């Protein structure tokens, strides 16, 4: 079915964005750079995502879904080639920027295409299918790369050769997919406005705060988690690193699915409470160098992130006027992708001066404080349906 083809392509594109996660340790040993440089390499990915969101976020509404999805796969393939032919830091930086551009193109376009192509009887589950493809891809990337790094003879080449084959299959299955949007003339690329209307701000602020805390956590696990495992916990197995990161995204998917049962206005503050609990467990894992605690903390934090993230996006969409919804959602996602990059660079800077363990402890404390403040804000000023703060 066409929507399954798009879901597969979505999964492959997002998988490519997290493939390097368990390989950073190998690159460090090969190229001799620091943990700070690992976080910088990771952070440039967010630059690509933000550029794509600002300049190209509405492109598929004009040229059609399929051309944008195919362009995203081309960028994903170019990113894999940069890593496959890597000759130093410039190749890693180029690969991450291209990967970010691919993700920025895919996130909104593929979600819309899955919903539009889903059979009528599956209409209610189409958005969840898009979410599962997104988070499943993000989680499968580190797991696939970790397993290949453990068992393949040349992991830094095999991982991206396999990725290129998956991308090629995605292109082939996308080609016969029907277009759902008529093409318009006079396409113009210009930055999208990022203004949030005043009536939406009571919903936007807690959603952005919760999202910042949750995406900062995802950024930590997809950048320096392997360093924590090797230098703090004493586990150097890339397969284990990939499995831990995969657990975060699997739990996030579970949290997003659970949100529908809990309800938007309860899920956001309770997701923050669960995220605080996850940070406490991660804090304990770093303090005691415990792998089981780190895995448990990853699962708990991922669950809280998923709950609060989907609740925040849903709440902001509900409060936004239809003619401003894309603009407001873009503003929210720019905040989230800033959150996935800048805090982990801060961890890298602190690791140089304080040490990696202390940097992780400070990070978990800051995220817990932000999530707790969001939960308190929601308790004091709940957002009522229709956009008025209660």
UniProtKB/TrEMBL annotation:
It is a multi-pass membrane protein. Residues 1-383 form the Major facilitator superfamily (MFS) profile domain. It comes from the Bacteria. The chain crosses the membrane at residues 31-56, 68-87, 93-115, 127-152, 158-178, 199-221, 241-260, 267-287, 293-313, 334-354, 360-380. Keywords: Cell membrane, Membrane, Transmembrane, Transmembrane helix, Transport. It is found in: Cell membrane. InterPro entries: MFS, MFS_dom, MFS_trans_sf, MFS_Transporters, Sugar_transporter_CS. This is MFS transporter.
